[in-house]
Amino acid sequence: MKNNILNTILLLCLLTTQLWAQNKQVTISGLVKDTKANTTLPFANVVLKTAAQKTFVAGTITTETGRFKLVNITSGNYILEISSLGYATHEQELYVGNLSDYLDLKTIDLSENINSLNEVVVTSNSSEISNKMDKKTFEIADNIAQSGSSVLQAMQNLPSVTVQDGKVQLRGNDKVMVLIDGKQTGLTGFGSQSGLDNIPASAIEKIEIINNPSAKYDANGNAGIINIIYKKNKKEGFNGKVGLTSGLGALWVRKENLPTIRPQYTMTPKINPSVSLNYKKNKINAFFQGDYLYTETLNKNEFVTRYYDDGDIINSQLKRNRNTHFTTIKSGIDWNIDDQNTLTVSGLFGSEKIIDRGDQPFFNADFSERRRLWQFLEDELKTTVMATAAYQHKFKEPGRLLNVGFNYTFHREDEKYFYDNILVGSTGTDAFKLLSDEKVYDLNVDYIEPLKNGRIETGIKFRKRDIPTNMDFKPGQNSVIDANAGGPATYKELIPAVYGNYVFESLKWEAELGLRLEYVDLNYEVNPNHNTYKSDGYNYTQPFPNMRLAYKFNDDNKISLFFNRRVDRPNEVDIRIFPKYDDAEIIKVGNPMLKPQFTNSLELGYKLNWDKGSLYTALYHRFADGTITRISSTVPGSDIIYATFQNVNKSYNSGIEMVLSQEVSPLYSFNVNANAYRNQINAFTVENKYPSSHLFSADEQVIYSGNVKLNNTFHFTKTVDAQLTAIYLAPDVIPQGKMESRYSIDFGIKKSVQKGKGEFFLNATDLLNTMVPKKRIQGDGFYYTSNDYYETQVIRLGYNYKF
Questions:
Q1: Per-state percent for the chain, helix, strand, coil, to nearest 5
Q2: Beta strands 641-647 and 586-589, pairing class
């Protein structure tokens, strides 16, 4: 009966974020000439009319140089009429499409005898699933149930996205590249994802999920791209927004501690003040965004039972109480030098301070004997400084652009670890310190040329990235850490790349063809005295094509076929040679011999729009060679588990996704997202080098999984909105194991006050306290089961004011 009730709740109130339609407007431009004299015609009349009723839509006259532009044109069929005294009136049919912001008709000739007929493309409405169906866009302000949370927590409600072990997955794949304002930064990790749980959602305007990136994006990240866009206002004068959010988490103890350890966090406080300021006058636009996030969190509370082949059984609990201080400041100036030239200079500062205090007791099978107590203190300070200069030149033809950007990023990791190993007859303390300074230089040049039926995009990119790192080990009594595994190591990366992309659109067909050519030279220099690893690296020159072909049955029906080739380059932390405790008996270590994973993907998408609703469906298939995954294994004579990244065999990810959105009435709308997929990793055998050479083999792993999300949005009055959400995640495969199903339900409500300038909100996540990750892991000589009762239930109250 209980299961039936829960299933009914899930069917009635599951979630994802609401998709709202947005109007996209296009600018049409051209140059009018005398066909015989080949001279430009000033002050010619240009009129745009609807094709069906011949009613007036827009009009202008050509400039002294013969140029014209029509702005804010929406999708549809039109007649363009151009006339000038002494010349025959020119008429041409124009189709305004959805893909390009600017359409350039190039030269239009007028004569006394000839009427030309040309065609044009413009844009119309674009929903949060783009007209190209290559990305989804979500406004953070619409996610009432996660207001005041971190970016990672806000992402859990988005279509295609799941969060597992603190990492984002797209369609069941965690090879995701995370960008901030379209750029890779030290805040989120270059070519990877990190720190998302500490970036306040209050600083973010919207999030883009790009499943099929074009050639203009870096080739890294085969699952796709998540682009986090910071707030930035451009209203005239002085304006801004201030906000304060507070909350409590871990409202009660979900599972009591094992004996003899320190209490787990409960009633954990959260506080997030934020301020956004903007001043615009004449040619200057200055902006500032500041956020501070303080949280106490029961970050881990995992109960584990290990079963070894020799019959031994060990019960343990890994509990981690975390304090986090995270400060982000972003500021800059837009200088509109003139109508054609703009310069933006901005800076970003981030400081992340994390203190972890943890306990891990180990008991025998019946809990009658404590074999070990492991207590630790982790003190981490991560500092990011980013400086950006961006120059844009607008040519005389609208939409023809040249963008030049330079970015410098400095990211420091200063980490200290202290581990007390309390055994029956002795106590020892391991200590180590890691210092890493990352410096990245990026130069980008991009050019856009509008065409009659689309546009051309091309550009170059150059990156230089250096990460010198040093680890100092101070092992204590009975330590399992190898003191000789420390010392210096330096990661060096050089990437020049060039790309070209062509977009075409006609009344029925759309096409996008792109190619990115990328050269990568990576070297990892290791301390010559290291007893296992030697310096290594790789280089390659590879093409990364992308293709999209679409057919439009009509304005509301479209089908698209996508193809992409992408790569996952190992990040520096994946190859970092220094062993690090994951818990007292699991050691994580990188692998400098790791090589890139190349992936090809195919997708067939269909989009249907109707009055107040839409349906998007997609079939997708990815196949990768040299799949990167983490391997957990033991060496003879030891129960210590070593977790190391390896290139294994081929892997496959296939599935179907559906997003259905409908406004039922002015009071209620919903959006449901379902994603079902099949993950497969072929059987493999690899050699792990650390701490000594040993082979590891695994059988083929296959699982069918997916998730369902439904978002219910209620508009009670003009000033009160609410959101009820729920997520169901089906069982899934993880490296060497399986994750059981889990679900959660969230609720949020907000009220507008002070004539729309103020807003109060109240929300609660995981109302039923049901989000408990349950795993079963099969290792070499052992297997284990675990349940993690970490903090998922949080209540937040907040207030925002715009001025």
A1: 5, 65, 30
A2: parallel
CA dihedral 110, 115, 119, 120 (to 10 degrees): 40
How do residues 199-215 score in pLDDT, each as one tens digit? Answer: 777 778 888 888 888 89
Q: Can you give the pLDDT at residue 191?
A: 54
Residue 756 to residue 764: CA distance in whole angstroms = 23
Say how far apart CA 372 and CA 360 lie, in whole Å. 8
- Assigned token pair, 551: 């057919």
What is the distance between the alpha carbons of residues 263 and 250, in angstroms, rounded to a whole number? 13
Mean pLDDT within 495-523: 94
Residue 604 near residue 558, CB atoms below 8 Å: no
Q: How many of the other CB atoms lie within 10 Å of CB of 546?
A: 25
> What is the C-alpha to C-alpha distance for residues 293 and 313, in angstroms, rounded to an integer?
41
* Amino acid of residue 189: G
Tell me: the pLDDT tens digits for 76-121? 888 999 988 778 888 888 888 878 888 888 888 888 654 433 333 3
CATH of domain 22-126: 2.60.40.10
CA distance linking residue 761 with residue 797, whole number of Å = 6
pTM of the predicted structure, to 2 decimals: 0.79
Q: Any idea which fold 237-802 has? A: Maltoporin; Chain A (2.40.170)
Q: Is the separation of the CB atoms in 384 and 350 below 8 Å?
A: yes
Q: What is each CA distance from 113 to 31, 43, 61, 94, 105, in whole angstroms?
A: 19, 20, 22, 21, 21
The DSSP letter of residue 66 is S
User: Are the C-beta atoms of 300 and 790 separated by less than 8 Å?
Assistant: yes
With bands split at pLDDT 50, 70 and 90, how would you rate the model's confidence at 398?
confident
In the chain, what are the domain boundaries?
Answer: 22-126, 237-802
Reported confidence tier of residue 665, pLDDT bands at 50, 70, 90? very high
Topology match between the domains 22-126 and 237-802: no
pLDDT surpassing 70 at residue 662: yes
Q: Give Cβ neighbours of residue 755 (< 8 Å, ≥ 6 apart).
A: none
